[in-house]
Amino acid sequence: MSGAVEVIDHYLYTKDHEWINLEENTGVVGITDYAQNALGDVTYVELPKEGTEVEQFESFVSVESVKAASDIFSPMSGRVKEVNRALEDNPGLINKDCYEKGWIATIEITSPDEASSLMTAEEYRKYLETLEQ
Amino acid sequence: MPAETVIYNTPLAGEHAVLGAKMVAFGGWNMPLQYAGILAEWEDNRKKCSVFDCSHMGEFIICGDAVACGLDRIVTQTIADMPPLTCRYGAMLNARGGVIDDCIVYRLASEAWMMVVNAANIAKDAAHVQAHLSGAPFQDASLETAKIDVQGPLSRDVLKPLVPGIERLSYYGFGVLDVAGVRCIVSRTGYTGELGYEIYCPWGRAVEIWRRILKDPGVKPTGLGVRDVLRIEMCYSLYGHELEENISPLEAGLDKFIDWNKDFIGKEAVLRQKEAGPYRTVGYFVSGSRKSPRAGHALYNDQGKVLGTVTSGTFSVGLNAGVGIGFFEKGENVLEKKIFFGDDKAKTESVMTRRPFYKNGSLKK
After folding, report:
1. Most A CBs within 10 Å: which of B290, B294, B348, as the mutation test of the A interface?
2. Residue A133 reports pLDDT greater than 80
3. Do A69 and B228 touch (CB under 8 A)?
4. Would you give the end-to-end CA distance of chain A in angstroms?
5. What angle do CA B199, B205, B208 make, to 5 degrees?
6. In this structure, are B100 and B175 located in the same domain?
7. What is the pLDDT of residue B36?
8. Rounded to the nearest 10 degrees, how much is the dihedral formed by the CA atoms of B253, B258, B264, B266?
9. Number of Cβ pairs < 8 A linking chain A and chain B
10. Would you say residue B178 lies in a domain?
11. What is the pLDDT of residues B228-247, one digit of tens each?
12. Which residue, B106, B140, B174, sits at the end of a domain?
């Protein structure tokens, strides 16, 4: 692994390495730097349909790298509002810029309380340390 | 499957660490999965020149007349009439006609042979070969022979200054040549579909050869990740996927590597299958999108009927689409037919095609 793993301060994180950036009742969702690095070059993203209802920690996106397919779990419950269509032609955005241009979907949050079950950036950094061998 | 326990390091393990490789356990060996990333390594290999550490592979040395010593019976391919300094690809079968392993046989001299086998199969192959050799000298040289593959359209140009005589090697020919001053077996063979060479060198000299080749700024190290993409793009079989003890060479599409005019172990069973026909067969298909088939996916027709199983699948960088190899139950493998891969939940349309997927390789240039 080259260099330190990037973590954004004001985002919230899951143990499966998804992030969510909450603004009022909408959250932008993606995967973390740790996840994109572990996956390797992303070659395909199976985006959910807009309007799909998702439960917290339910699989709602599939991200494929050259060698494998991985499920991405929604950090919070809600309705898929928008998906990042740029990933259809350019899935490598997830590798290049996982926290900005490589976002996957926005979700209209239905249970804001669930945020308390996610990790803060500080907690996620500590969690990553426990994963390092 | 239980987690693989790493047993062996190749002599280049330290080099891989310095190069920042992501490592993976493969066939009992600690091997580089990738360095710069699979997409970048694909470009390095198909457009320029790349090196692979393949020191995990097995090498056996056998001495004797091919027929009298029993070697000819062990391999499906014609061995006895091979010209010296050539190689041949073939398979070893069990009595039921199933593939024990695939291999390349090198004729070192009129009565001296090297057999190259898969890393995960070294022990069982050595036992099988020895059991069927009529007392001929046999040496498992796997742990003293390193192997460095130099592959890509520029590989000949890269090796020219280091390996006097390299330009004389023709496809599937080899020589005992000096590589940067170290005596090695160098064959014009590979597993990528590009012009390339496999260098067999003493274990203790691998580091200096590896470093010398990588001194050329046009050469990049490549790992097992891209190697699998490259071999799938060429529709080459991999043991544990398209080849297994319960898969016959006919089913695996290895017909042209069988010499029916000689006796070989498993011949009777394979011949019986050939005459009885039809049997399950290997087939190749291209996904209609960037979504890739994966080993274990089912194959379906447009009515949802299961036709077979995917044995290898990947994203093909060359085709910018998913590609797959699978086994189709007897009578179900029809060219140009629309099929689907996936599972109960989601199926992806694809089209059957002829091998290889990638047709622009520099293999025979």
Report:
1. B290
2. no
3. no
4. 12
5. 90
6. no
7. 96
8. 20
9. 44
10. yes
11. 999 999 999 999 999 999 99
12. B140
Same domain, B49 and B175: yes
Whether ipTM > 0.90 holds is: no
Widest Cα–Cα separation across chain A:
40
End-to-end Cα spacing for chain B: 41
Residue A116 distance to chain B (closest CA, Å): 32
Return the pLDDT at A2: 43
Give me the domain span that covers residue B100. 59-140
Domain boundary among B173, B207, B233: B233
User: Is the torsion defined by CA of A59, A93, B219, B197 positive or negative?
Assistant: positive
B317 to chain A, closest Cα gap in Å:
9
User: Which residues in chain B are contacts of A43 at CB distance < 8 A?
Assistant: 290, 292, 315
Residues B40 and B83 in one domain: no
Q: What fold does the segment set A12-122 form as a domain? A: OB fold (Dihydrolipoamide Acetyltransferase, E2P) (2.40.50)
- Whether residue B307 is contained in a domain is answered as yes
Number of independent structural domains in chain B: 3
Mutate to test the interface with A, among B292, B294, B316, B343 (most CBs of A within 10 A): B292
Whether residues B102 and B136 share a domain: the answer is: yes
Q: How far apart are CA B52 and CA B206, in angstroms?
A: 12
Q: For B270-308, what is each residue's pLDDT tens digit?
A: 999 999 989 999 999 999 999 999 999 999 998 899 999
* Closest residue to A43, CB basis, from B34, B228, B315: B315
Task: Determine, yes or no, domain membership for B238.
Answer: no
Q: Does residue A4 have a pLDDT over 60?
A: yes
pLDDT band at residue B7 under the 50/70/90 scheme: confident
In a 13 Å sphere around the CA of B227, the CA atoms on its Cβ side amount to 22
Is A64's CB within 8 Å of B290's CB? yes
A66 closest CB neighbour out of B20, B22, B225: B225
Q: Where are the domains of chain A?
A: 12-122
